[in-house]
Design goal:
The protein has 365 residues and is mainly α. The protein has one domain (2-363). Helices cover 74% and strands 1% of the residues. The protein contains 15 helices and two strands. The protein has helices at residues 2-21, 46-62, 68-91, 96-114, 124-132, 134-155, 161-179, 183-203, 212-233, 240-245, 247-263, 276-289, 295-319, 324-346, 352-363; strands spanning 27-28, 41-42. It has a two-stranded antiparallel sheet with strand order 1-2. Helix 1 runs antiparallel to helix 2 (46-62) and helix 7 runs parallel beside helix 9. The longest helix has 25 residues, at 295-319. It starts with a helix and ends with a helix.
């Protein structure tokens, strides 16, 4: 419990200090296709997460935890991907390709420092390649971790969205890690979740501070890395467990690439405002509520819809964490549901229950 308190308080008070003392360089602008706020907010909330990770590493060391060194190496491995996003937050000059390379470099450090790579994804032919060719395994792991980091960044943009999804992911990791007796991953997952809670307090619903690219990339990388460690350290855990846990941001990313490249004939690296969360904001929240609520609340109303989407993945992942074929079926079901819902909303055929719930909220405010 002490380590959870340390993680939470470090993150909480870092956010408090940043909100009170942040200079103009730390303030997010309100211009851009992916900007849906009309107030000044601190953009470097990722500092609260990285400071919390460092503080927890120190606490583990002082308490002489046998996994303290592992935790330190995990944090060190995460530094490049965090810095790639953090420098972009400050300068707006670090493109998505460079940030992807930073994520891959962090993935290489995982192999160098922790000695871990993915050797299985529970697909027979592919597993043979991963297990037989180290270079292929290292490259695939680095690319996968960078991809998950980018995926969490893509779903970031509304108060509480990326952080809420991440909390569910890390609590799920903690639960399964406990079941398989891996105390390193239990402590790591719970302290990361506690750090996110410290940030979440200031982010939802008022939006005083955002994760920024640094925070979103960091959380995505850590979510992917924790999944890799859990799968590689415990053969009874299906490789599809972390995949189902993260299928929402992962599929959002893949869907966006296909949509941009083939439906809009644009670069998959160029940002746009046609993600599921943005069309829910524009065609469900705005059309139903209008401008009768403050902008920060309109922004925050988007996130619960996507938290529900994440729950659709989280619950079966936690229940069937060792059953590969069941996890595959739920992953496929989510992809079908996401695609169906996306085009329903795009074509102004939003499911009535989404509108009904929002109208009920509107009547009670």
């Amino acid at each position: 419990m002490l380590f959870l308190i340390i993680a939470f308080l470090t993150s909480f008070f870092t956010c408090f200090f940043l909100i009170k003392k942040a200079n103009e360089a730390f303030i997010d602008n309100q211009v851009g296709v992916q900007k849906f706020h009309q107030w000044n907010a601190v953009r470097v909330g990722g500092l609260s997460i990285i400071f919390s990770l460092i503080t927890v590493s120190i606490a583990f060391t002082l308490d002489q935890k046998d996994f303290a060194k592992l935790h330190i190496l995990l944090v060190v491995s995460s530094i490049p991907v965090f810095l790639g996003g953090f420098i972009e937050d400050l300068t707006k000059k670090v493109g998505p390709k460079i940030r992807l390379l930073c994520g891959m470099f962090s993935g290489f450090l995982v192999y160098l420092f922790l000695g871990e790579t993915l050797t299985r994804v529970d697909l027979p032919g592919f597993d043979y390649l991963l297990a037989s060719y180290l270079l292929f395994s290292v490259l695939f792991t680095a690319f996968a971790l960078a991809g998950v980091a980018n995926a969490i960044n893509i779903i970031d943009g509304f108060n509480g969205l990326a952080s809420g999804v991440s909390i569910m992911v890390f609590l799920s990791y903690a639960y399964v890690s406990f079941l398989v007796g891996d105390m390193f991953l239990v402590y790591t997952s719970l302290t990361i979740a506690s750090a996110i809670f410290g940030f979440f307090f200031w982010n939802f619903p008022f939006g005083y501070i955002f994760l920024g690219d640094g925070g979103a990339y960091l959380l995505g990388f850590l979510a992917g890395l924790t999944g890799v460690l859990l799968v590689e350290r415990h053969q009874e855990v299906s490789a599809w467990f972390p995949l189902l846990l993260l299928i929402y941001p992962i599929y959002e990313t893949l869907f966006s690439i296909v949509r941009r490249k083939f439906l809009r004939s644009s670069s998959p690296f160029e940002p746009d405002a046609v993600h599921l969360h943005t069309i829910i904001y524009r065609r469900v929240i705005k059309l139903t509520v209008g401008n009768k609520l403050p902008n920060f609340l309109l922004n925050s109303l988007t996130s619960p819809y996507l938290w529900f989407m994440q729950l659709l993945c989280t619950i079966p992942a936690v229940l069937f964490w060792s059953k590969t074929y069941v996890l595959m079926i739920f992953s496929l079901a989510f992809i079908v549901f996401y695609t169906w819902l996306y085009f329903r909303i795009v074509n102004f055929k939003t499911p009535k229950i989404m509108i009904h719930l929002l109208k009920k909220f509107k009547e009670n405010t």
